[in-house]
Amino acid sequence: MKKEASNMSETHGHAKSYRHPSQGARDGLVGVAFWQFMTFIMLILLVWLNELMDLASLWFGVPPSPPSVFRGCVISIGTIVVALATVGHTYVQQKQIISGLLTVCSSCRRIRVDEKLWEQLDDYIADHSVALISHGICPLCFEAMKQELRKLDADNAAMTIPSVQSPPGAG
């Protein structure tokens, strides 16, 4: 009963909806793309604000210069080119993120690449991302290994062969 109540409070009384595993990555990319877009819009607005109000003369007291539509257009086009390169680079980075549903063998931990091909987890991650692989052992597996080693030590101790003594008189 307590568990049901806590689940209801977590979802605010609504049933949880299913989210595909790759949706989190897509949501993150949409947020990044939005803020990149907003930044470049602000830069273009700053270029034109500078052309109309001559911000350098207002802020730094330099001699005023007349507005130049040509200069504003050139800087705006340059900003758009940089924006396209930035968004393109973000897209390439996003492709390096593993997303979606991966089928992993529960026994050998290989990943299914297609119907007949299974690949080692380490190789798959190295080929499909920029992540580096490091090996370790979790505390649960460490304890299980210690138990197994103790059992092997006990089995080996029980299997020791008593030393054979020479029969009396052999010499």
Number of helices: 6
Structural class: mainly alpha
The succession of helices and strands, N to C, reads: HHHHEEHH
Average pLDDT, to the nearest integer?
Answer: 78
In spatial order, strands of the major sheet run 1-2
Number of strands: 2
**Which spans have pLDDT < 50 for at least 5 consecutive residues?**
1-23
Helix content: 55-70%
Shape: rod-shaped
Biggest β-sheet description: 2 strands, antiparallel
Measured on Cα atoms, how large is the radius of gyration?
Answer: 33 Å
**DSSP strand (E) fraction?**
under 5%
Question: Whole-Å distance between the termini?
Answer: 81 Å
Overall description:
It is a single chain. This protein has 171 residues and is mostly helical. It is 59% helix and 4% strand. The protein contains 6 helices and 2 strands. It has a two-stranded antiparallel ribbon. A hairpin with a 5-residue loop joins β1 (110-112) and β2 (118-120). α2 (23-53) runs antiparallel to α4. The termini are far apart.
Topology (elements, then pairings):
Layout: H1 2-10, H2 23-53, H3 55-60, H4 69-95, E1 110-112, E2 118-120, H5 121-128, H6 139-158
Antiparallel strand pairs: 1-2
In short:
By secondary structure, this protein is mainly α. The chain has helices spanning 2-10, 23-53, 55-60, 69-95, 121-128, 139-158; strands at 110-112, 118-120. The protein has a two-stranded antiparallel sheet.
